[in-house]
Write a structure and sequence with these properties.
2 copies of one chain form a homodimer. Chain A has 333 residues and is an alpha+beta fold. The first copy, chain A, has helices at 2-15, 62-78, 100-116, 166-176, 178-181, 183-194, 200-209, 222-233, 251-254, 260-266, 279-282, and strands at residues 23-25, 32-35, 41-50, 83-93, 119-127, 132-141, 157-161, 214-217, 236-240, 273-277, 288-289, 292-301, 306-309, 315-317. At the A-B interface, helix 1, strand 2, strand 3, strand 4 and strand 5 of A face helix 1, strand 2, strand 3, strand 4 and strand 5 of B.
Chain lengths: 333, 333
């Protein structure tokens, strides 16, 4: 019994499951108990982060695995405009990951929890030949203020936060082992892949101000995530390729086929916010919110087609080529 | 994109994620949104159900895997006295499990959801070489009424619902392939292992009536789960071996070393309720609640020792030998 208990004690110590502040019962009982603070709606999401599918034990630092597992899940709350409160951590680990690796994993997850304002409320630990982390993140939002995928209307402008394709560039460097060869120069290019920042302040600002009609986080890639919004809203879109805030790719990497536009269109895991704003409100949209830049990249259209307009004014269909775990070529990403 | 979308559509169709009744946004968005109904506390739990650790693809019917994954998680709510409301389903599946297996899995899970009053609120799907199901179950309870592990006091009587050891007996038959050889005769012995019933009505009755001072579900086995209650409450216990409602083992199975007492003490996954009741209230305790029998098996004591009194009045230390996923001999159960 000692081993599981010890693991749970290390989790509780590092992630400090505080009761109080709405959490009446934290980890150590059959379930967590929490009460609402005032008039509020609860927002819940669950997300799996799996060895080989999402991360590689030999290539990813344990701190980054712990940080990113929680960041990914919390990004779904950002995309609703919710405020994060609690999380439940379900861990499946090989024995080899229960020592030093686990301590470093917890350091990263603890950093993420503090940064996002999350308190551990409960969890589950299991032994497994492959490491897997399942996170459930719970937040709240003013009733009726959550921003859904389904509210985009023809004429709305399409906006995106930050820069797209940075996480994909980092992943490609890591997959090729290039980050080791030129460590100093390319280390910062890994940053977005290892430590994405859920756009919580921007999401909450958009929800509170009522400016955004639809919102999603760019987890699968712009081409796929925009298709999700259009499908949920029953609309189409056109996007201007030259307006997309694309990752800056060093020239020696362009040579090996890393194209900024493709990375920005189809690269996943940037965890930026993609949202739509009615045209009349767009002119009052600041260029940045809480330091995060906002760029208008296109317009919602009638019909169902999603089009990409290139620099020369040519139009082509904008196929969703982002990540799908069940598509054949997606394994190993 | 088609494959993941199709899987989600099949989930939504079979498990019917209804909005309404407190669920404002169900599956299909970044997160679920729900609002409280009246003055209530939320109860949340998360639970992983993994291939090879908890079930075997070749031995367990897919319907049973779907049913049991949700039953196990919901049992944690029963142990708090909570009413189940919603669940989030996180699925990691090999491609081989996305066809017929998946449909049968959903049939079982749908049966469980209907039976427990649960509505699907959201989820996540992933591809993985090993099947894994993570459930987050959300319920509610009248504020202050949740029954914790930590409330047992010296002099309280220890009670258990149903019969202990039945699930373990079923598992042993299945592991030895004996259920196939004498299918008709032993099929019902598998029932508790394949289709455990979370004691929701009993748990809610105990919470509402305020009779139980501490409660846990017997997921790891009586010896381990009683130790959890004693540790959380800072007390000891004595248990009368002859009073434990033990599984009835057919004589031809006793010959191969299946001992009813050992099965009842250390066998996991019965998902019965183990709870403590102040002595003055115990005399008014009915013998069954909603058809589920209740048996008094022991008494909470001062100090930290947990003792087992055998039929001859002899006392011995009652070691926790139930299931621990990180103990060496636990793999494969």
């Amino acid at each position: 019994m000692a081993r599981e208990k010890q693991l749970i004690e290390r989790v509780a110590q590092k992630l400090r499951s505080r009761s109080g502040a709405g959490l009446r019962v934290g980890i150590g009982d059959d379930a967590a108990v929490m009460h609402s603070r005032g008039r509020t709606e609860w927002v819940l999401t669950t997300d799996a982060f799996l060895e080989n599918a999402h991360f590689l034990l030999h290539a990813h630092p344990p701190e980054a695995v712990g940080y990113k597992a929680l960041a990914r899940a919390t990004s779904d709350l950002a995309a609703m405009g919710a405020r994060p409160l609690y999380f439940l951590l379900s861990l499946a680990l090989p024995l080899s990951c229960t020592g030093k690796w686990f301590d470093r994993f917890l350091v990263g997850m603890s950093r993420a929890a503090r940064s996002f304002g999350l308190v551990l409320a409960g969890g589950d630990t299991m032994r497994s030949p492959l490491a897997g982390i399942n996170l459930t993140v719970i937040g709240d939002v003013t009733p009726g203020k959550a921003v859904l995928r389904s509210g985009a209307r023809s004429g709305d402008l399409i906006c995106v936060s930050g820069t797209l394709g940075e996480a994909e560039l980092g992943l490609r460097l890591l997959q090729r082992g290039l980050h080791k060869r030129r460590k100093r120069k390319w280390k910062r290019l890994l940053q977005k892949h290892l430590h994405p920042e859920p756009r919580l302040a921007l999401g909450q600002w958009l929800a509170k101000s009522g400016r955004a009609t639809a919102m999603i986080d760019t987890s699968d890639g712009l081409s796929t995530d925009l298709a999700h919004v259009c499908e949920a809203s029953g609309v189409g879109a056109k996007v201007w390729a030259d307006r997309i805030p694309k990752v800056s790719v060093p020239s020696d990497l362009r040579k090996i086929g890393l194209d900024p536009l493709r990375l920005a269109l189809d690269g996943g895991e940037d965890y930026e916010l993609l949202f739509t704003v009615p045209k009349r409100l767009a002119q009052h949209l600041p260029r940045a919110v809480h330091g995060v830049p906002i760029t208008i990249i296109g317009e919602i259209t009638r019909g169902k087609r999603i089009l990409l307009m290139d620099d020369a004014g040519r139009t082509k269909a904008f196929r969703a080529r982002g990540w799908d775990p069940f598509r054949k070529d997606s394994v190993g990403k």
